[in-house]
Amino acid sequence: MERFVRVSAVAAPLELPNVDTDRIIPARFLRNSRGAGYGQFCFHDLRVGPDGAEDAGFVLNQPAYRDAGILVAAENFGCGSSREGAVWALAGRGIRAVVAPSFGDIFHENCLRNGLLPVRLPTATVAALRQALCAAPGATVTIDLPAQTVTGPDGAPHRFEIDAFRKQALLEGLDDIGLTLRLGAEIDAFEARHAAEWPWAVPCRLDAGVPG
Amino acid sequence: MAGQTMLDKVWTRHVVAPGPGGRALLYVDRHLVHEGSFHAFEMLRQAGRRVRHPDLTVAVADHYVPTARASEGSVAPEIRGKVDELSRNAGAWAIPLLGPGDPRQGIVHVIGPEQGVTLPGLTMVCGDSHTATHGALGALAFGIGASEVEHVLATQTIWQRRPRVMRVWVDGRLGPGLAAKDLVLHLIATIGAAGGAGHVLEFAGPGIRALSMEARMTLCNMAIEAGSRTGMVAPDETTYAYLEGRPLAPRGDAWARALAVWQALGSDPDARFDREVALDASVVAPTVTWGTSPEDGGPISGRVPDPAAVGDPVRRASLERALVYMGLAPGTPLEAIRVDRVFIGSCTNSRIEDLRAAAAVVRGRRAVVPAMVVPGSGLVRRAAEAEGLDQVFRGAGFEWREPGCSMCVAMNGDAARPGERVASTSNRNFEGRQGPGARTHLMSPAMAAAAAVTGRLTDVRCLGPLPDR
Ligand code: SF4
Q1: Ordered alpha helix ranges (H), B75-145
Q2: Which of A33, A155, A179, B145 could in theory staple to A110 by disulfide, Cβ–Cβ 3.0 to 4.6 A?
Q3: Where does the pLDDT of residue B413 fall: very low under 50, low under 70, confident under 90, or very high at 90 and above?
Q4: What is the predicted pLDDT for the residue at B72?
Q5: DSSP states of A126-186 as a string?
């Protein structure tokens, strides 16, 4: 996973609340293997009309924001489907962080596993940040993970919270399967206890079920 | 000290090891995979890792399977290929598979309870957000992304922070013609699409006890559309009656032992909840959505709202955008909205009770727009046929399809055309969900059936007597 320490990038304001993961990447693109490059699918149906022409009104199509590395969004960003492709699409387009008042839970989790930093800030702070970015198209925002701050065009830092475990993993680019596999003995012990106490719970041999 | 919630009990039971930052490594009792899980299998292979517990994993083909026998040959090869890839991965790792041709095949969240894969008190995950459905039986079940699917395949565990619990207390009973779908759309319209964020919704109260198992599944299924992690209902006699005799439900002594545990699973009377919401089911009206978020819903007697009346500029802009996408003018009575197509199916509403409710409306009438019924599983389809429901639907001009996700997500090629307005029993009315440019109105099976026979959004309670024949 790509490390995240300190990122300064052009930030794009996205005013829509409830941006669902179907909008971030329409379902029809999910059959592609990751090698296809998911960045090209990012916000596809918002960027490109049914006739194949770019929608000049969409923020990421505007020259000042085209190469944005940070999104400043509204409430409930990334709600809906669990598709991790939504995160791959954003990351593939070079988005390193999304700042919003709230996120879809599964999307939030998926971000953290892909080196994309989801930052929660109070609604009013995020609204002011979006406004500042609209007023100064192409302005830069800096996110400092060790210090846990977001600094907008006005230079004032806003502190955000993140759990220590995820912060460390992002700083070091750690994949947590490796960490979990080191707990093999604990998992074995749990399985032995579980099988003895809840024998009906394991195993689940579907093949042995009587069809129909 | 306060008593424990149901979530506390299931959670504590499954902690393998405490982790940093308030996390815990939880054991996963059941892992459901589907065609979309191919990404995780690819990642697992690239990392040189193995599937730890094929015997706790179940593979189901649903998202990409064709639902029309006739169209099987014409399915695009890259769609067909996703089903084959699932079969290959299941074969390579000896994971039991319910694939096309298996009489039990269907939507993963219909199959789990139906086969007894889902049991009270278990932890379950699947790379699909509607895994929440299984919470109806008292399981802790939630959707995860591909990286987490890989993690579960490799370790049979998952790192989680304990969610908070919001108890949704329901008094009263749903009126005639009403269904769990109306109740949950009403709830989401009330608390909002992010109203449950960070929480598990525990549905409780006399109004929930009165619901059938399948109705509870509809409710938990859509808990995720309120932004919550999942939904749960404490197991009771309805749950046990539903489960007993299912292929994978415990039997004999094992059943008795399990039952003793399940009976103690519900939240303690003195348990404390992080949030409480109360609803009265008896005042809920048939509810439909008019916008592009599941929270954009209201009673069928209502009208499309006016953005000019919304103070918050972000909300106003979003509403304006939704109405443009939906092709609706502010103030339009919902009952005046004409539909082009009707879809009855999805993991929300494709079980036998759903099909019965729709058939009761359709019987003796005719669909005036293209309409299709996609049963949730092969077993649901057969049960419906045994009751003659297929004849009711076919006789009324509906298509009677093979099981799968179909037009809920339009991945298998069953899509609405751009601009088409669909009365749908599925769970998401997002832009493009049922095909690029498709306009979705969410509602119950009975309401979708009513829309099919009138060609517009219709209060099913006001359909009037059957036409003379
Ligand atoms: S029916 Fe729809 S919501 Fe349910 S699992 Fe399939 S695609 Fe997902």
Answers
A1: 77-93, 108-115
A2: B145
A3: confident
A4: 55
A5: HHHHHHHHHHSTT-EEEEETTTTEEE-TT--EEE----HHHHHHHHHT--HHHHHHTTHHH
Whether residue B130 has its Cβ less than 6 Å from ligand 1: yes
Nearest CA to ligand 1 atom 6: B405
A chain contacts of residue B19, beta-carbon cutoff 8 Å: 165
Please list every residue in chain A whose beta carbon sits closer than 8 Å to the beta carbon of residue B255.
200
Residues 6+ apart with CB under 8 A from A34: A88, B39, B42
pLDDT over 60 (residue B6): yes
For the cut 70, the answer to whether the pLDDT of residue B244 exceeds it is yes
Minimal Cα–Cα distance from A147 to chain B, Å? 17
- Give me the percent of chain A exceeding a pLDDT of 70: 97
**The pLDDT of residue B467:** 54
In B226-347, beta strands by DSSP E: 230-233, 275-280, 287-289, 297-299, 341-344
Q: Is the C-beta atom of B63 inside 6 A of ligand 1?
A: yes
Q: Is B56 in the pocket of ligand 1 (CB under 6 A)?
A: no
pLDDT of residue B73: 57
- State how far residue B225 is from chain A, nearest Cα, in angstroms: 7
Per-residue model confidence (pLDDT) at position A211? 39
CB contact under 8 A, A177 and B47: yes
Nearest Cα to B414, choosing from B422, B406, B426, B403?
A: B406
Interface test with A, best of B159, B255, B414 (most A CBs within 10 A): B159
What's the CA angle centered on B421, arms B462 and B452, to 5 degrees? 35
Helical (H) or strand (E) element with B357? helix B352-362
Cis ω for the linkage preceding A203 (within 30 of 0)? yes
Distance from CA of B467 to the nearest CA of A (A): 38
For chain B positions 35-94, those within 8 Å of chain A (CB to CB) are: 36, 39, 42, 47, 49, 53, 55-56, 58, 64, 78-79, 81-82
Chain A residues close to B247, C-beta within 8 Å: 206, 209-210
Closest CA relative to residue B175, chosen from B464, B461, B434, B463: B461
Respond yes or no on whether ipTM tops 0.95: no
pLDDT (average), residues B407-413: 90
The overall average pLDDT reported for chain B is: 95
Asked whether the predicted pLDDT for residue A28 surpasses 80, the reply is yes
Q: Are B132 and B114 in contact (CB under 8 A)?
A: no
Residues 221-260 of B with CB under 8 A from A: 227-229, 247-248, 250, 254-255, 257-258
Token pair 């749908």: residue: B424
pTM, two decimals, is 0.95
Q: Do B156 and A187 touch (CB under 8 A)?
A: yes
| pLDDT tens figures, A96-152 | 999 999 999 999 999 999 999 999 999 999 999 999 999 999 999 999 999 999 999
Measure in Å the smallest separation between the Cα of A69 and chain B Cα atoms: 23
| B-chain residues near A183 (CB < 8 A) | 16-17, 25, 157
pLDDT tens digits for range B51-106: 999 999 999 999 998 888 755 556 778 788 899 999 999 999 999 999 988 999 99
What's at B157, amino acid-wise? Answer: T
- Which positions ≥6 away from B318 have C-beta within 8 Å? A15, A16, A17, A18, A74
Note the pLDDT of residue B74. 64
Closest CA to B279 of B170, B167, B196: B170
- Given a contact cutoff of 8 angstroms between Cβ atoms, the answer to whether B42 and B145 are in contact is no
Q: Which residues of A touch B404 (CB under 8 A)?
A: none
Count of beta carbons in the 10 Å neighbourhood of residue B237: 9
